[in-house]
Amino acid sequence: LCERYFVLCRHENTTQSLVQNCTFFTQFASTYKLADSLVVLSSMERAYYRSYGVQTSYIPNPFPLSVNIEESLLRNSFERNSESLISHRPEKKSKPRHLVWIARLENNQKNYKEALEIFQLVSMTEKNVVCHIVGKGETNADAEYVRNFIKSNTLQDNIIYEGFSLEPEQFLEIADIHVMTSTYECFPMSLVEAKTNAVPTVLYEMPYLELLKDRKGYISVPRHDVAGASKVIWELLRDDERRKQLALDAKSSIKDFMVSNPSHIEGWLKLIHSLENSDSRQSLPVNQDFVDFVSSTISYCQEGINRHREEYQNLSKQYQEENNRLNAEIKSHQEELLYHRERIEQLNLLRKSEYDARMIERYAVCRDFVVQLCPLGTKRYVLIKKIAKLIYGFIKRGCRGESNRRSCDIGGGGKLLIDLFDKAAISFSGQRFNVDCLTNDKERETIAEEVWIRFIRCSWLCGT
């Protein structure tokens, strides 16, 4: 057979590449015409390629060997004992409800992150629920994301990451609801297994699927409608009668499907026999109206894709320019701030130098006044030196407690002390005077008394 006939099997949805903004699938029809026959997984795909003149057959996926319709019809999904199947499930006073999501951990098609969000919302409103994530990703990063999501949201009692399993039916046998979050599918085996086990399904809208065309055993919501899916699940969990009816519908749906559709083996045998008949190798007529419709539709899609791509590029360019402008402004403000800081430091140094000059001048006046009033070697000089040390120590201890204020600096108590000495030096005539002009001891005593009064006041103020 392989030497005489060339058969292609396509297990994807033809237009799914539009999700990635690609329209290269329009070239498939011309390529598939080279084959003797094309095998697809839906009647929609068959009609599409036959309109292009491609010999196309619809053959569904093979059903699992464990599928036994008569046996499954005897099961009642609401009377199953789940505790014997999965031992690590958390124990609760009442029997928990079980939600199951089975797929590979992939986010472009399977949307496992949205499944986690749906389970989180359901767990917030329905505490007695256990959600099972069954499957693994191509890398460990996806599994790690699931574990981190469960841990960071404290959902260890409500969401269990089961990982990869060769027997997914063990989870469907205890499931109350099966959840599918795929953006697109062709012939999902998890849906076959869910219907076989009489489990109602909540999924995103995919009306072209062969398993959904009878509209039995499932509830669909718009794609990526996380809130809508969680609401439907929550309502089903609280409506046993509706959930039971959906389960019965799922049973009858899969039975009707197997009766009305050829099995995988029957489909291939029919295809082989048709290929052996030379008449079947004649090319099919092309439905030009359909081809023109598809071509125009794809051209509009491509134009929209290009337009959005250009808009995105323009927006990206504008964003980059705005980002560069803001960075330049930030850099300019930082330079300006640095300049002002340096200028403030320069002004502070200048102010300090000016103050130091004034302080030295006042200190010299006070020193000359005290030295002339109390000459070196006299008892008055020795006494005033001791008192000055005591007052200085008192001021220093007071300034030490004011570390946040620069009171211990020259601008603190020392400045006040010098100012008061200066006032004492000019208190009599409003101008500086020479101690040598004091001719008698009484005048000297009067000046000394005034100086000591101001000196004591100064030390008291600085100490407090």
Describe the structure.
By secondary structure, this protein is α/β, with parallel strands linked by helices. The protein is built from 14 helices and nine strands. The protein is elongated. It starts with 6 loop residues before the first strand and ends with a helix. The C terminus is likely disordered.
Q: Give the terminus-to-terminus CA distance.
A: 111 Å
How many extended strands?
9
**Overall pLDDT, averaged?**
78
Model regions low in confidence, pLDDT < 50 over at least 5 residues: 68-93, 406-418, 420-439, 459-464
What's the helix and strand layout?
Blueprint: E1 7-9, H1 28-32, E2 37-40, H2 43-51, E3 56-58, H3 69-73, E4 97-102, H4 112-125, E5 129-134, H5 140-152, E6 159-163, H6 169-172, E7 177-180, H7 189-196, E8 201-204, E9 218-221, H8 226-237, H9 240-260, H10 264-276, H11 288-373, H12 379-400, H13 410-425, H14 441-463
Parallel strand pairs: 1-2, 2-3, 4-5, 4-7, 5-6, 7-8, 8-9
Helix pairs in contact: 4-8, 7-9, 11-13, 12-14, 13-14
Main features:
disordered C terminus; 54% helix; alpha/beta; 464 residues
Short description:
The protein is α/β, with parallel strands linked by helices and 464 residues long.
